[in-house]
Fold:
Amino acid sequence: GNHKAGEVQGQTRQHAVLINLLGVKQLMVGVNKMDCDMAGYKESRYTEVVENVKDCLRKVGWNPAVVENTPYIAMSGFKGDNIVKKSDKMDWYKGKDVVVKTKDGERK
Structure:
């Protein structure tokens, strides 16, 4: 797809189709690169991406209820925002956190 036109790109679309065909029933979507110049940690960019991904998931056959109940996590993998710890740059984000647990169940 054309990312400049707001279309979800091919690899994301392919992964959405494949995991649906494999029978996966739950998703978690990371909205990555929130630190880049285009996103600038803005809620508006996050919302735009989430709506595009939801549309893609519905188009490739995902159950609409699953699409709506999927957590969409705003993050920056490069800088660790909302991965290593809650980001102060995205205080508007009130969704799920990525939680890392040790073998004995303790949160890191």
DSSP finds three helices and two strands in the chain. The chain has a mean pLDDT of 86.
